[in-house]
Amino acid sequence: MAMTLTRKPLGLFRPDPTQPRKSFDNDELKALGESLKKKQLVPVLAKPDGTIIDGNRRWLAAKLAGLEQLDVIITDEPLTPAQIKEIQLVTALHRTDLTSYEQFLGCVDWLTLNPGATAKELAAKIDRDPSTLVRVLSLANCIQPVRQAAADGKLGLSDWYAISKVPEAEQQALLTAKLAGENRDQLERRGRKLRNGEASGITVNRLKILLGRQGCSVTITGNDLSLDDAIDILQETLKSARKAQGESLDAKTWVQVMKQKAKPGA
To answer: Could you report the per-residue pLDDT of 89-98, keeping only the tens digit for each?
Structure first.
């Protein structure tokens, strides 16, 4: 096995059609391209024929920025499709957020390539919390209209996880409620009523979390926030911060990027 760090023209590379990420934010690609103009921190990983194992997003950003070459590690290791999928999932999930549906497809692909394997085993291989993958893969327990709504971007991870917890006969009702404008917490309450006729759980409009570091705290505001909401928000924020760090953004720039993404229609 040989692994060689070199610099190659963009024309050498070609994307792997089976890679998990299917969509790309043009503004984020532009920002990454500007960063690559200054310095490429992470090389692309590719096969000798130029097929990208890891780094498709860097390649697209470089093309958009008008760059001619990228640093690349060429490996002739005979990687199996399952091993390539693991590499792609690790890098995509830890450095750049996939859409929730893309995460689902990537995890399902890996499980298909590893008959008999479990979500817990996949979590260990890609260093993820097993409970996170349980939520991602819960879409497999949903009826086809729910899956299609997820594929169309009309449902997020927390939405389909809430729907997956009710019997299939009741899932269409929750899907209809979601498409009519209900949020995840409302879906959870509706689901609890469908399951056992009870509505439980305390929600608030503001959560101030004091941290161990002197004088530091995190505040979350919104409507009807539950503990599950707080967990989801903090996880997504942490992933976004790690992505910004990987792209060499400073804290102020990251905040501005998040602000732009939060605007309606962004």
So the answer is: 655 554 555 6
